[in-house]
Amino acid sequence: MKKVTINSVAQYAGVSKKTVSRVLNNEPNVSPATREKVLKVFKELDYRPNPIARGLARNKSFIIGCLYDNPSKSYITRVQSGALEACHKHNYNLLIHPCELRGEALIDNIDQLLTTSRLDGLVLTPPFSDSRELIDFLKQKNINYALVASAIQDDESISICSNDEQGAYELTEHLIALGHTDIAFIKGHPDHSATENRFNGYKRALEQHQIPLQERLVAEGNFSYHSGADSAKAILDMTPRPSAVFASNDYMAAAVLKLATQRQLRVPEDLSIAGFDNAPIARHIWPGLTTIAQPVEEMTRLAVEQLIMQISEPQEQVYQRVLEARLITRESTAKNH
Amino acid sequence: MKKVTINSVAQYAGVSKKTVSRVLNNEPNVSPATREKVLKVFKELDYRPNPIARGLARNKSFIIGCLYDNPSKSYITRVQSGALEACHKHNYNLLIHPCELRGEALIDNIDQLLTTSRLDGLVLTPPFSDSRELIDFLKQKNINYALVASAIQDDESISICSNDEQGAYELTEHLIALGHTDIAFIKGHPDHSATENRFNGYKRALEQHQIPLQERLVAEGNFSYHSGADSAKAILDMTPRPSAVFASNDYMAAAVLKLATQRQLRVPEDLSIAGFDNAPIARHIWPGLTTIAQPVEEMTRLAVEQLIMQISEPQEQVYQRVLEARLITRESTAKNH
DNA sequence: CAACATTATGACACCGGTGTCAGATGGAGG
DNA sequence: CCTCCATCTGACACCGGTGTCATAATGTTG
Question: Which residues form the HTH cro/C1-type domain (chains A, B) (predicted)?
Fold first, then answer.
């Protein structure tokens, strides 16, 4: 069981190791006969190039880093899953790096990460994808990166997002169509651009239907279940109580549902509740939550694929795209009587 | 902004690069004065050794792989979090590798992973940690590994688990103490050793209290929410209906709760429900689920730490440990009337 | 103080690939 | 048949560290 290196392949095939390397990397200027011969030896010896040696010679690691700071486990795993798919397709690996946006020394932390791990690129997920400071740092350091679900679309950044504003608009419109006019809204974390986008969609729908925005119905949250619980308390204590609540994500919506149920309110008869994200919890509870599904895996997959392309052959034109979100209606919303 | 390599450090400090290497690795046989001098240059030049070059020279990657195939996102993120903590502490990185135990070619898949990524070790989480086939393969290939939540304790394997049997025993006893005797049980996935352990705990508690085990009350699940929903239907259709349901994890318990609520059963007045794992959903729903909390992060952290120790200095005595699980009571269980 | 053991240091090859460049080979054109 | 150019191919240095071993410097002993 000896190690198969490029040297043994070269010797066995009767060519120089440089020629083997050429075949390996699909470089031109290898005669078809030689290429064939070497490829055959690859199979015979079951040769697999050592990525570490390759990395050293090319100053590459074939590793993409994924930054996140998100309370939603399901969001994180969806992001990972999309990123992994793209990585594996191109023989890259994924390094996960949870860290805090508001941490004392984010830039230092990332700098450390980059120099110790020699990452070839970074995928930034919210809220990092909206951090100007971080992005400027990466630009200055000449590190390739891709933004997921970011509001930034600046011609220099690969950026894939979904249409939060439109999603929130449709969901609000759905509630309005059910006869609701007093619709409370729970905002997300202020560091995420999704927070503002979703709120804007809500406002636009109200405006469109000539329903005045009531500031009193807008609560501050931060996407965590806990913050949803706090907002839920404030909202359910209001008089008059709104007939519907639109929370900026499903966890906060679940918190509203929990409190409402505790207080013997019937959902959706007495109170309609809607969320955002289509997290697993949205269908694990009763009644199931009406929500907006986003293509998180798809977004991340595209972002990482573009990132890898950018790494292998830097391009002038950078890829940007907005994917569609879609409304999913479940039992938690119903006609206002 | 030139690159700082071991050569530049050596030159700047006026020593050979081998000496720099010695200081870097805390090797003996360097005079205190020289060591001091080199360390000072490290700081001055902000030198960070290139892990790739190091890896090539030592035939190491400083990367640990983490295998999982688990429907629970929260479990996965907890595992990752524990593993990352241990990795970062020792300057390792974590590569995540979701794959299917029942996949057509698991061994090939892992073989591929190992040769292309040159991992220094693997952490196996359930159900991989119970796969004899995989473990034998790793032994034969001389790959270091650590088992998380495995039933295997064979003196050659690092193995950290928590006491599932005891946890299930305590939870069942809790239900018995509340006056329940007809306690349905939903099993987990047959590939996980936890499934049998939890079932054994349930049986032991019944036996201890002279309650005969009723086969009709035992349903097959597989830890997924969906399987829980199927079992829930079977259980709630039974006549007479049991007064309590103990599901082998919280997702399945949540499915029981959802169906019970849909059917207008009051929980816990008409039906007590308990789960296992203390997943986030257990406290995100109403009523909150009585469950068993396991130290998942702690298990994984310990496993990875031991794994890294094993890698750096192979030891005769291998580390094994059983951590305690603990009962968490919430609103979903109450006295049987 | 000679003889030897111990500690400190550096020269050099090596890990397994890739980049550069010079030289070999072969076909087209005059 | 010779020149010229395009296509192949390999020798060799190099990426940034580590291992081996010889040698220099220092310490210990009789």
Answer: 2-48
